[in-house]
Design goal:
Chain lengths: ~260, ~260
DNA sequence: CCATCTTTGTGCACGCGTTCACAAAGACAT
DNA sequence: ATGTCTTTGTGAACGCGTGCACAAAGATGG
């Protein structure tokens, strides 16, 4: 082992910050767009603007991958696309199963951007016997009975859950037992999984609620004073009354 | 508690951390489930488990809202549901428009959890003239021409973008110009908006890529050594060659 | 009224992520 | 070859978020 060889491995393989990993797909998307326009090189400033981030952050992110830029010039677009793709594991094919082919599951199955980056829909799975055999997005839906076999046969390690919330944990357990180690969950539930299994969730409702919070803050900056007085009175009354017998808790304010 | 009148306002109205805001909907969901089971009180430990977070974190989060717990007992479920709802701005009705009624937009329109928490689908908007008038989820789709009028008439401040990526920025600008100040973007693009407008994005592709990264790491912990040797050779060759004349850059592996 | 026991609310320390600011690297012109 | 000019890569400072650990609060029982 030569002297300078170890440094690279140590730099790369050891802990890329999670925040950086989450931004790599963003950079990759911007770079792909540049690549399609046959742009040969790009500066950190330009790329950062395209990805919607700070240029210093972008440079630091790239520094975790290695020194792929050229000072005074910038980054070679094609080369960087390859490096990031490789780092993210997109140079290999990832078979994915979608479980729960309802409104959302069907939309996901039809989603083109799915296959565009190394992800291949290996199977669509639903518990409804009526759906078995019916093609969605050109792929026949299979019954839940087949779940374990499908995962095993296709070497699936990534699963997408789009079932109702009530079924999600159970589906999750079957997926994990069958060998899935990464789950993307669309159902509004907290999934509990053993160590070594990654779960990411996409939750529309939570996103809207966060927006509503900021929206309320924006709207009620000046009107807050008066509203606050009313609410304080209410709250004080409620506090005094304790947990009253009937519906004294205001719950959701009617229109 | 007669003395602490001022303290409360000061504590609450000033900056709730963003990370806390993002967790409030999670707590709210867990609390709502408890409420439906008529559970009167809950400890921070129990609630934290239900929400999938650390109990100390939960207590600190709640401390930003005020002192709503009772030591030795826990938190009053109904009261807390109300306080969090109010804090998030869910005690009022938020009319929402969805723009782009394709696969995803239609799924969103059909989503029940949408209306369940103060969010009301005020209108569905699409650029396709064919779709105009057709009902989706019981709501007739309206043409993009009407966008400004719809937003104005309904006092919409939250918009959801589910159009193809190419149209997203343009749609975004029209929404903002019409008065929308919060946007939930499903299109895989970086939206640029003026100050004062909040954008949150939901990006399936990014989530999958993050999962793939961790998946690759899990799989290649021991096989890394040999693969690394090969890749190092490749990289070294590529480095030496610089940006070669033809397609020496591997780019994304074709299907 | 006092003791005990449970659970909150928070001070504190630590680690991660962000941003600034600049020295070093290298392209390019002369 | 040398100087200039651009842009990277990163050291260092800072701020935010997390989690520990515990004192204070208050319920409950005697
Ligand atoms: N539709 C949306 O836009 C949207 C948005 C956010 C979240 N979600 C969530 O995504 C999930 C799916 O939403 P949807 O609108 O598609 O619901 P849906 O009712 O249309 O579809 C659910 C599907 O899951 C299937 N299913 C039920 N139990 C199953 C099981 N045990 N195994 C396999 N399949 C099972 C059903 O047969 C059905 O086809 C829900 O949890 C919903 O809350 C949906
Ligand atoms: N389907 C999914 O599961 C999924 C997942 C993640 C992201 N996305 C993204 O969400 C977006 C929509 O996906 P989809 O599968 O529903 O696509 P789609 O093609 O089925 O639907 C797009 C709809 O937008 C409408 N539209 C186009 N331009 C418009 C404009 N300027 N104004 C108003 N409406 C316009 C079209 O008429 C069409 O009805 C895409 O950007 C996609 O990348 C989709």
């Amino acid at each position: 082992m030569a002297t300078g060889r170890t440094h690279r491995t140590a730099t790369r393989s050891r802990g890329i910050p999670e925040a950086t990993v989450a931004r790599l797909p963003l950079y990759l998307r911007a770079l792909t767009a540049l690549s399609e326009r046959s742009v040969p090189t790009v500066s950190s400033e330009e790329l950062a603007a395209a990805a919607g981030v700070n240029s210093a952050k972008l440079r630091k992110d790239f520094s975790y991958l290695g020194s792929y830029g050229t000072r005074g010039v910038g980054y070679d677009v094609e080369y960087l696309v390859y490096q990031i793709s490789r780092e993210l594991g997109l140079t290999q094919d990832w078979p994915v199963v979608i479980v729960g082919i309802g409104n959302l599951g069907a939309a996901l199955a039809n989603y083109g951007g799915f296959a565009s980056r190394g992800f291949r829909v290996a199977a669509l799975i639903d518990a409804d016997p009526e759906m078995a055999g019916k093609p969605v997005a050109g792929i026949p839906v299979q019954h839940t009975d087949q779940l374990e076999k499908i995962i095993d046969d296709n070497g699936v390690s990534i699963g997408v859950i789009a079932t109702p919330a009530g079924a999600a944990q159970q589906v999750c357990e079957r997926l994990v037992a069958a060998g899935v180690t990464s789950i993307l969950n669309f159902a509004p539930t907290v999934l509990s999984v053993p160590d070594g299994v990654d779960v990411r969730k996409v939750d529309l409702s939570i996103e809207l609620q966060i927006l509503a919070f900021h929206e309320q803050r924006k709207a009620g900056e000046e009107a807050d004073a008066q509203a606050d007085a009313v609410l304080a009175a209410e709250a004080a009354a409620a506090e005094k009354a304790g947990k009253g017998p009937d519906g004294d808790v205001p719950a959701v304010m009617p229109a």
